[in-house]
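User: structure tokens for this one?
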Amino acid sequence: MYEWIKAFHVIAVISWMAGMLYLPRLFVYHCDAEIGSKQSETFKVMERRLFKAIINPAMMVAWGLGLYMMWAHHWYSAGWFQGKLVLVILMSGIHGFFARRVRDFAADRNTKSHRFYRIINEVVTILMVGIVILVIVKP
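Assistant:
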């Protein structure tokens, strides 16, 4: 059963990361759209749907299956896992930050620049790389 749980965990993580990498790109383009324009309204719909239909469910499945595997295999005392958990918590914090940004864009209250969203996109990438290295290499 472990292989199936791990497979669905990986699928959930891939889905979560795809959304976490795409959403800030939408924010970058949304910054350039005039408030109230058709383009801005389209970005609002895209951001909301991506967040609610893909990113949120994928994160919940990834966390649930990951925690199950942690307890089932007693990884909680392994150094590699503790490092991974810290990075996943940071990623989850960015996820929460993105939730706030989706709401701010929906209410036409964005205060961040397109440059900010380009940088935060790289932070997501760096966290993802660190997580993958810790899981595969287990240093």
